[in-house]
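Is adenosine-5'-triphosphate placement plausible here? Inputs below.
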Amino acid sequence: MTAIRDRVISVDRLTKSFRTPVRAAGLRAAATSLVRRRHRTVRAVSELSFGVDAGSVVGFIGPNGAGKTTTMKMLTGILHPTAGVAQVLGHQPHRREPEFLSKIALLRGSQPISGPSELTVADHVRYRCLLYRVPRSVIDDRIAELERVLGLSALMGRQVRGLSLGQRMRVALGLALVHRPAVIFLDEPTIGLDASAALTFRRYIAEYAATTGATVMLTSHYLTEVEALCQRILLIDDGTIRYDGTLTDLAANLSPWKELRLTLSPGTDREVLRRHGEIVDRPEPDQISLRVPRASVARTTAAVLAEAEPLDLSVVDPPLETVLDAYYRSRPCGS
Ligand SMILES: Nc1ncnc2c1ncn2[C@@H]1O[C@H](COP(=O)(O)OP(=O)(O)OP(=O)(O)O)[C@@H](O)[C@H]1O
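Reply from A.M.:
I modeled the complex. Tokens:
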């Protein structure tokens, strides 16, 4: 295991299996299952190992059903691992020690605010401050900051159950950060938010991480979000880490192709180009992209320059959405 003490998050062969009942459809099957239950085991996370240093913002991405939420739940102590070890800030999360809980926050887009929805936002904020023992001397300042930065003033007197999704998420973020957590787990935090609300959210997270030095782990299917916030990407697939590195290198790592982007000279015969690679996109009539195997990029570039004499040529990795789409579709296990 690598330097577990120097890391804020350390995960070593972490595994989670669920035992779920199996039942065929229909009344007869329902009756039979009352006396003879059958189960199957779903391995959601399989011997996962990685570490996260203090102050990093890490994007945890992967297809549906890859094991992201299950991992987040183990790292925040909601789920007990089946095997392996997780340590966050030196604590084993499943023990749910008060000191550990007071230093982390989990925000889930699917369940932004827990607790009674009849209470007002102000009640929730003050209750959270008490629960996390925020010193009385700073409570008012903290609340004022949240009101200002997240625009919560107008919502303070409203019942949580009457809030829209976007308002709920703003409140949830305020609640998650009011005790100044050192590690923040964000699980699909901007799901369903409009573009402007999502942007505000990202700005606040980025600012919070930069000013407090907090460590952030983010799962998201929005690549722009991951791109905006994360220096490092962990790609999880079928419960195991498939890639660990920068977003820029991800395309190079996953895709066997590169794209030659050409601005064509007037009158160029596109059929000539088709011989050198698959034409993948034509944003403008005089532009074309050719998909070319990585190994033959240099040779193909030379041939295209000689034969088609384009006005401009650049070699780029394919767009990340395209790469991930191809990768997710190619998975044998599905989700
Ligand atoms: N409580 C549970 N009981 C049985 N199986 C579960 C349970 N929770 C998760 N799973 C299974 O574990 C696997 C991983 O699920 P998980 O929710 O961690 O995926 P995810 O990467 O977060 O997916 P998504 O992007 O769709 O949110 C899936 O096959 C899922 O069906």
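Short version: The chain has two domains: 54-251, 256-316.
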